[in-house]
Write a structure and sequence with these properties.
about 270 residues, alpha+beta, N-terminal domain of MutM-like DNA repair proteins, Helicase, Ruva Protein, domain 3, 2 domains, four-stranded antiparallel sheet, 7 helices, 10 strands, about 20% strand, binds zinc ion
C-alpha cells in the first residue's frame, strides 16, 4: 500500500473508529507486534480510538491516554470494518472489537507491523521517526523538493522513493509522475532544471490525487471491502511494457533501475 491507499484507509478508519472503545483484540501473527501480546492487549483494551492519519506508508491511530497505534500493511492487507450484525471476513490475522459490537479485521498478504507506543516514544521509533513529508502534506512544497535535488548526485527515482525524504511513494506511484514530467528515473538529481522540477512536483500531486479520487488501486480493497478503480485503465506508462506511449506512440519499456524496475517511454523521457 502506498500513499493513496493509506490516505483512504486513514480517512475511513477516522470516520468509523473515532470515539469507540476497544472491547477486545486478537492477533494471530504476533510477530507484527512490538510488545508481547498480553501486554499489548492489556494496554489497548478499554481505551478509545481518537483519530487516524497517514504517515508515509503507515496509518497512525491516536489512542486515548497518550498512546499511538502504528499500522503498516507491508505488501498489502485487507483491513475491513464490520458493524455489529455483520460477519467479519472469514480469514484474518488481527481482529479488533469495540464496545458497540462493531470492529475491524485485517487479513495480511505477507507481513505487517502493529506497533503500540506511548506518544513520548514516537521520536525514538526507528521505522517512523525519520519519515519525510508525504506529497499531501503542506510542508511538501516545490522548494522542499528542490532542496532534495539540489547538488545531489543520486538518481531522481532513488530520492523520491527514499521514505526519509518523501514518504508514501513506492514502486507503484513512481512511474507516471516521472513520465508526465518527461524525466528519466535515472536522471541525476542535480541536473534537473527548475522547469522540470515544477512539472515533476505538479505531476506527483496529480497522480496521487487522481488515485485517491478513484478510490485507490484496483487490486486493493478499502475499509468497506470495495476495490478501487486505479489501475491499467489509468496508468500512463506504469506496468505497460510493450504498449504504445499515450503521448508519442513509442513502445513503453521496462528497465532496471537498481534493485527495482521502471516503466518509461524512451522518447518522452530521454536520459
Ligand atoms: Zn512517449
Amino acid at each position: 500500500m502506498e500513499l493513496p491507499e493509506i490516505y483512504l484507509l486513514s480517512r475511513d478508519m477516522y470516520k468509523e473508529l473515532k470515539g469507540k472503545t476497544v472491547n477486545d483484540v486478537e492477533v494471530k501473527n504476533v510477530k507484527c507486534l512490538n510488545l508481547p501480546f498480553e501486554e499489548f492487549r492489556s494496554i489497548i483494551v478499554g481505551k478509545k480510538f481518537l483519530g487516524a492519519k497517514p504517515k508515509g506508508k503507515w496509518v497512525s491511530l491516536e489512542i486515548e491516554d497518550e498512546y499511538t497505534l502504528l499500522y503498516n500493511t507491508g505488501m498489502g492487507a485487507n483491513t475491513i470494518y464490520y458493524q455489529k450484525d455483520d460477519q467479519p471476513q472469514e480469514t484474518w490475522h488481527i481482529k479488533f472489537r469495540f464496545e458497540d459490537g462493531s470492529g475491524f479485521t485485517s487479513r495480511v498478504w505477507w507481513f505487517c507491523y502493529l506497533h503500540l507506543l506511548k506518544n513520548s516514544e514516537l521520536a525514538s521509533h526507528k521505522m517512523t521517526a525519520k519519515l519525510g513529508p508525504t506529497p499531501l502534506d503542506s510542508d511538501f512544497s516545490e522548494d522542499y523538493l528542490n532542496g532534495l535535488f539540489i547538488a545531489k548526485r543520486s538518481s531522481v527515482k532513488n530520492i523520491l522513493m527514499d521514505q526519509s525524504k518523501v514518504a508514501g511513494i513506492g514502486n507503484v506511484y513512481i512511474h507516471d509522475p516521472l513520465f508526465l514530467a518527461n524525466v528519466h528515473p535515472l536522471r541525476q538529481a542535480n541536473t534537473i532544471t527548475r522547469d522540470e522540477l515544477t512539472k515533476l512536483y505538479a505531476s506527483i500531486k496529480t497522480v496521487i490525487n487522481e488515485s485517491i479520487s478513484c478510490g485507490g488501486l484496483a487490486y486493493e480493497v478499502n475499509f468497506y471491502g470495495v476495490k478501487g478503480d486505479y489501475g491499467k485503465n489509468r496508468y500512463r506508462v506504469a506496468y505497460k511494457e510493450g504498449e504504445a506511449c499515450p503521448i508519442c506512440g513509442e513502445t513503453i519499456q521496462k528497465i532496471k533501475t537498481g534493485s527495482t524496475s521502471s516503466y518509461i517511454c524512451p522518447k518522452c523521457q530521454p536520459l
